[in-house]
Amino acid sequence: MALSEFYLIRRYFARQAMARSDVVLGVGDDGALLEPLGGEQLVVTTDMLAADVHFRVDARPEGIGHKALAVNLSDLAAMGARPAWVTLSLALPDPDEVWLAAFSRGFLRLAEQFRVQLIGGDMTRGPLTICVQALGFVPRGQAMRRDAARPGDVIFVTGTPGDAGMALALDTGRVTVPEDARAYFRARLDRPTPRVAQGLALRGLANAAIDISDGLIQDLGHILERSGVGACLFLDQLPRSPALAVCGDEPAVLAAQLGGGDDYELCFTITPSQLPRLRRIAVGWDCRCTEIGVIEAAPGLRCQRSDGTFHPLVGGGYDHFA
Amino acid sequence: MALSEFYLIRRYFARQAMARSDVVLGVGDDGALLEPLGGEQLVVTTDMLAADVHFRVDARPEGIGHKALAVNLSDLAAMGARPAWVTLSLALPDPDEVWLAAFSRGFLRLAEQFRVQLIGGDMTRGPLTICVQALGFVPRGQAMRRDAARPGDVIFVTGTPGDAGMALALDTGRVTVPEDARAYFRARLDRPTPRVAQGLALRGLANAAIDISDGLIQDLGHILERSGVGACLFLDQLPRSPALAVCGDEPAVLAAQLGGGDDYELCFTITPSQLPRLRRIAVGWDCRCTEIGVIEAAPGLRCQRSDGTFHPLVGGGYDHFA
Question: Kind of pairing, strands A230-234 and B82-92?
Fold first, then answer.
């Protein structure tokens, strides 16, 4: 039976249980009609995910749905924005209802968790491609920007960057780890946790912030470039998950920590005088928050060992066209 | 030389000349930071275009760029919204700079024309797929919705629906027309004009509206379904462009007028007492505005000839998965 795109949209995407009071008209018209809260700034972000670039085409669709939304919520988190609305566009080779049911379940479950309403989208035939746009709000002047790092700022990361990169390294077959560690890395890659709560807590506190999608070196590099500063990373302070800690393959671990993408942790900078406030707040977080370096006036990024030696930087994170 | 996605974004998409005062932060951070105008409602719409579904993969990239934005501005027009901001996500098999330069030229030229600022987006490797989101504003309560048609309303269309559909019919080789007409149809298909000015003029005047992307019958059908009404279309009043008028192939013309998609004209309904006001306004438009039918209480769509006979409806417009 040929399935109508209108039927598919109604069946899988227009049935979200949650309805926000600021949505006048959601899925089903030429556009969504929304009531922005007066006095706040709007944050808009979008990410496109292509099969076999961002996810394996045979990956579990529920995980793909989760990740497609998570990476966008992560961008809002990096700006300190409270998520509100999301649109979803899908190109699909075939209207596979089993796939769509699982995909929409993963997507909508995460949406409910963060009180984000799906307000519209599009569906077309084509090679499997997903495009999500997320919208959120931040009080005027409180957004965290990439261009706001200052010399002397302390650099932090949430969580344990490198986990997702290690899952990708395992796929190449050149690295081996214990089976439990493999499952953990795979889960971190497939079901990243957007650090929305941390992003909200950091506004008015952190100076610059970014989420780690292309690798710590590369993403921190965006902050340095936009802020016109440099940094020193303390390599031996990079936090390791228990799985990273038992890997044994030190070069692989370091490569994942510095260059592995897909972690969706936050990297941010903060004025030293704010450290006590940060420590008080971070005690209540469900993830680690680790000091990993310092912003310096001299441009460039240096990676220092605890014995004072410097580590030569190799590789620069993920670039879709490099 | 391998080209960086960051280089490509900076080179082709971060250089828009126009800068709106309501954009605090555009391309280049985790998200755009925007100042919505207080007291207005926000309209958000998105469309995804896949190669060989929405455009031929070998089509002129400038036209593809134009169309990718035009179809989204058309959705805003159908809601009566004033366009403000747009995001653009691109999956590309290769970073072809000649293609990108022409694509971005077509996209940004139309953006300038409507004072729309490109505020962000994404670029990834993948099969050629384009996803655009457009954001605009409408005074509270003045958006035109699909569910607002009332029995007795007069149905209008802008322009001459069927032109784009005829270009698609010509591609099949089963229809032939004079060479000049062919060029005209192709231009209407490849470079649709979003009826933004008409949409703005119609707010507070029209009841329901939709833009014709999947064919008049199907799109008018959405209004009927959402409004819980029916309609009678006056077949012999459907407006024809000079090219449609000289086609000769009457069944092909009628099929394009009723079922051809991709016109991006507006179809709207209006209370009869407002007709004098509409006629005064439409005199200044750069496109035709033609009465083509009437909304009725009885469900269903009837197509009537001027001799009173009814035309059997065949085909239902374009569906991506039918």
Answer: unpaired
